[in-house]
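Figure caption, in words: inputs first, then the predicted bound structure.
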Amino acid sequence: MKITDPVCKMTIEKEDATATSSHGGKTYHFCSSHCKEKFDKNPESYIDGDATGKK
Ligand SMILES: [Zn+2]
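Bound structure (zinc ion present):
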């Protein structure tokens, strides 16, 4: 299953995600711990908008 890293917008396989973070009852997957750190500092800025590419 392909998912989009909300920080860098990279498409990755869910199984390949090296880091995850829960926010607002949803789980977000990241290509690297670096992206997770950026997300955790300011999750709202990455969730708002078209991070997932679909509503
Ligand atoms: Zn990333």
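Residues 4 and 11 are 4 Å apart (CA to CA).
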